[in-house]
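This follows on from our talk about sequence and fold. Go ahead and set the record down below:
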Amino acid sequence: MSSGSQDQTGGNRLGKEDSPYLLQHAGNPVDWWPWCSEAFEVARKRNVPIFLSIGYATCHWCHVMEHESFENAECAAQMNKSFVCIKVDREQRPDVDDIYMQACQIYTQATEGRASGGWPLSAFLEPSNGMPFFVGTYYPPQPAWGRPSFQQLLDSISNSWSTREAAMIEQSKRIADAVTSAIATEHPPGKISATIAARAALQLLQIEDREHGGFGTAPKFPQPAYFSLLLAAGGEQGGKVVRSSLTKMACGGVFDQVAGGFHRYSVDEAWMIPHFEKMLYDNALLAPLYAQVAAENHDPFLRQICERTLQFVNRELSVPCGGFYCALDADVGGKEGTGHAWSPDHTRTVLESAGILGEDQALFLSVTGMDGAANFRDPHHPNDPPTWVLQMRDPADALNEKVQRALDALHKNRMTWPQPLRDDKVLLGWNGLMIEGFADSGRWLENDAWKARAEEAANWIFDNLQTTDGWMRCWRSGRASIPATLEDIAGIANACMSIWRNSKEPKWLARAGDLYSSARETFFESEHGRWSDVRAGDSMLFVRPRSCNDGAVPSGTSLILRVMTSLIEAGADHSLRSDLSISLQAIATNLAEQPLSMANTLSLLPLAQQIVPEVFTAGAVALQSTSIHAKADTIEGLEIRWKNGAVEIIAEAGAEVLAHDGSPRGLRVRVHAPSEIEIEAKYPTPIVTHDGAKYLTGLFRIPVRQRNMTAAHAVKLLVTVSVCRKGVCAAPQFVELSVELQTEFSKGD
């Protein structure tokens, strides 16, 4: 990927690259360069900006922008004339992507009032140091959605550089400074609250979507890191929420009911309609979660989902006798859903050919939702007939042998359709996650074949991505390339530890120890206890990324912390305790400021506290430590109590409570336990308004009654409050009240 030589077969410089994403653009009329020093040098000599386009092979909107703009001869001529154009595969170069995605969020926050990002990422850089002065995402061929056309944007940027070069450079410096501050800020070492993981778990319980499972609204991502945190620090209620969410996800279309495996995310809040790409890392992180919860609850449905997920990975994302490929595309033939959605007529034909008739056929159409209205239409091809994404109306349906026979028939038929593109590169870090997924699932569900598959893949990784030049991040078609990142080394080290837990073979423990030593030598900045994401020395990066926040995959920092705790648990050398202590103290401020963005690290803290207790403030790491089992409590100027069938709150002078507004920060009363009880709460009318936000003050009441119950019940209520003074609100806080709920409101309420 470092070569900048022109492809002698015609086309641009991407024809000799080993990234499927870059190869997709090798025939564009755009004079693309890969990420290399030669491209920067050409831009400096020409004194033109760099247009940096970042995406990945299975990205739908990347395909759209390529077809609309990069394949357009007029647009390409404009790009070639005014810019040096660089194309980057974000999966190969997460360091480059991290820097410019951070820049995108900073720029959009400043210019649009909200931080946003996504792919394709479109950044315009000054040529000397690669600092960005304009950053966005997808731009259409014609003005739309408040965005200029891509050609209008090119004209505007080119003109600005020609007439206001100094101002553009000054703007790039400001953005670069903000990026550097965001991803490489050093904080003084500190202590970590012993209750931080439990408090974060409690916050997740507050924002859980009780109807559909998971967190947030559309688009809705599985977020396995949140589930892991709830299992580690959420107590009994956390376990219930995870089981319920995993079940609801698996019944929806975000799980491929026909072929198994999970799609990237759901475009609706109910998990019904997926964005159809399938990523290795999603399935790697979800499979062992399903295995663990299935084993702990003796749940045959969740066990089946784990099994079908791993079967999908083995069948469609596996190098023969080796590691694992990256992903399957969302599109087939330029259309979303073509490879996954069904029509009832075609489904009946397939079932009839398999001898599934009459009541059995009707049963299948009913339980998969095909006896109702169509639920999917490709938004980019509105004239195409609507189709059905299959779901399961009940977990028991998926366990029905007749239903499974029908699914097998549909899967056999679907394999005769045109298939989605497979991104057939192998990434070291993602393979570490998948190997760990097979090993841990095998341990939870006592499946020796999965344990063996983990070992097979790990041995292949050691043979193919460990080179004379060190560990490489990427492998494709027999070639390993791109130096490994912290995420890569730590990921495969954790995989070795998971295999060791199964086999107790010394070589796996030794391999994990060697990998940790390599990571420490390459990425550890011992003077301040920080771990960098990449090795030093890439002169084209204006900042060395050092992020401890999780993305779609766990951060490199969280992965290396887990390596340390695992090695210490296994009896490794005492010096690791010092490394762990220093590393945790270095991120104490980050954890305090953004706990949920570091959910994978939070999951480790209960174990870490046992190993290095000196890093933590006093307190027990348990959900109960943040719950207040009393009829009254005081929080930052509030008295909160249960009185006469209502939550009663008294705010002292100067203190206000953010009113109920449906957000996680607004006043809210919910049932903590038992989970099957539903309530109705009457929230008071706000009496104070500042800058559009509404508040309550003085004494106010929230009457509460239970729904659909004929007798009084003892329950635990969770009350969320955000205390505000002069319009500035603290983070939400939680109080638990043990109360007896009636079936009706009190008189006067």
Remarks:
- The chain has 24 helices and 30 strands.
- The radius of gyration is 27 Å.
- The mean pLDDT is 91.
- The longest strand covers residues 713-721.
